[in-house]
What we know:
The complex is a heterodimer.
Chain A: H1 2-20, E1 29-32, E2 78-80, E3 89-90, H2 103-115, E4 120-125, H3 133-153, E5 161-165, H4 178-184, E6 186-193
Parallel strand pairs in A: 4-5
Antiparallel strand pairs in A: 2-6, 3-6, 4-6
Chain B: H1 4-23, H2 25-34, E1 44-49, H3 53-64, E2 68-70, E3 78-83, E4 88-94, E5 99-107, H4 111-127, E6 136-142, E7 148-154, E8 161-162, E9 170-175, E10 181-186, E11 193-198, E12 204-208, E13 214-219, E14 225-230, E15 237-242, E16 249-250, E17 255-262, E18 268-275, E19 278-285, E20 292-294, E21 296-297, E22 302-307, E23 313-320, E24 322-329, E25 333-334, E26 336-340, E27 342-346, E28 352-358, E29 364-370, E30 375-378, E31 385-391
Parallel strand pairs in B: 1-2, 1-3, 21-25
Antiparallel strand pairs in B: 3-4, 4-5, 6-7, 6-31, 7-8, 9-10, 10-11, 11-12, 13-14, 14-15, 15-16, 17-18, 18-19, 19-20, 22-23, 23-24, 24-26, 27-28, 28-29, 29-30
Helix pairs in contact in B: 1-2, 3-4
Amino acid sequence: MKTTKLIFPLVLALAAVLATSGCKHKPVGLTNLPGQRPLVGNNDNLNTMPPGPTYDPNAGVKTGGGDLASTDLFDGMVPDRAALAADTIHFAYDSSVIRSTEKPNLALVAQALSSDPSAKLLIEGNCDERGTEEYNRSLGERRALAAREALAKLGVDPMRIETRSFGKDKPVNPGHDESAWSQNRRDDFVLLHPKAGV
Amino acid sequence: MKNNCPNIFKICLPLFLLAAVIARGQNEITIEQNITVMGMTKPIPVALDGFSGETLNVLKFDLYVQGFSFVGPDAAQYIISGSNAGNVQGRVTDRFAKRSLLSRSYTGASMRREAHAFSDDIVLAITGKKGIAQTKIAFKDEAPDGDGEIYVADFDGHNTQAVTHDGAIVAAPAWVPGRLALYYTSYKLGNPDIFRHDLSTGQRQAVARYSGLNSSAAISPDGTRVAMILSKSGSPNVYICNADGTGLKKLTTTSEDSSPCWSPDGQWICFATKINSRRLLAKVPAGGGEVRVLRTVGVSNPTEPDWSPDGKWIAFTSQMGEFDICVVPAGGGAATVLVPGEDPSWAPNSRTLVCARRTASYRYVLSLLDAPTKQVKDVPRVSGSDSQPAWAR
């Protein structure tokens, strides 16, 4: 019994050593790497690019938000950033809810649109830096859409409004504290005038 | 005698195992390494001998981000020896088995490319899996004013080439699987629109230019369909269309959707969303259907999911004060927090991730992470802030 216990593992060990021993010197293999051409070509055709699919402008007009107006309806309009610069509204962290403190500014925006029926509106939604990039791009869009819905309730035709999210790419304050963040969580309003002479 | 028989087994079995461990110790280690535990797997110890300069740096970088560690020859499981005099040549020897696994010479290219080719052969010889050292990434480089360009580069951040020269805000580059083509978001024409860009010809075409948000394109594994986020119906939601933008279909009616990605079988789209004011990951059948929540137990505020090419894992970003890279089984369950970072993208090997890390100066730097071992290396930055990486696969 005792001899079996000792010999068994020794035999195994010997077999294992024999199996893995035997030094091999193979000839060195050769890999010849083919030439490399630049990855990126430069036949840019952006300026002659077809507009691509756009939304059907004949879709039914809804109040209280709903489908957005076609981008075609805003082509060639001249942005006036100064007109409504004082009416920017701000948001709580990670929220697209319009607070009651912001409603007077929205009323001023609605008033500007009602006094100039030819004007349209671009709402730019923005976020602070405390979120991931594409999450913030969606949150910024929600903030712009929330203002659009609120303006529709104030009687503005939502088809006169386009929305644009910059996520966290356009902070108004480059700081990294709550004071900066609270200024960056905002909707900016840009009045759009028809091109002169049209 | 009847009672003796089990006793012999009791005594002999451990001795048998001990003998196996002593005689073929490295096999025990190999078995351990084959069980991938995200964040907890031990690196494979190797010794490098005979290399210098750029070749040595490339080999160490490539192997480190694929789960290898560097030790002295006495502690190594594998010896990687050779030289870079004139051209790269090298051998891999299994120290325990006393067996040569690889012996090869590389010619015809820069020292970097020869070293990358050698490191791929090393990884294949030791792990049996394809290395990632000759793969590409795409990312965005952003200037302080928010404008940026899309870039492509070797996976380690070298050989960067600008894809765009627009001086506009750009976002979310995504590769067409197996093709030299990208989709990305650009504000070049004012609105965030999605373009397809053929890298070899430079041709690009608009894929989605609807009102509101057009962003976060993700191309199906077979290259025929695109998932993306549009807000044209009044809320940012997941849509799907053909590769050229035709055949648009809305997939979700949830709120604040972002960052769709595909399951490797093309059946599911996973995305970040908000349900009852809580940020969650969810998935929806690519053909349309019910949205299902993907549980990420133990972490909160998940965004930016990416499905591993082997189908087993979903990597994502959690935001609990700071941002962390996490992984969760693709069916949902307990999430594992790996390292600080954002926006992970899997390498073809389903173990290395590229992500963006916020630096002390509030800029992003790209970082490579070997998920099983949590080994991390930053890659060189283009100029400003580099983020939203996408691994070509």
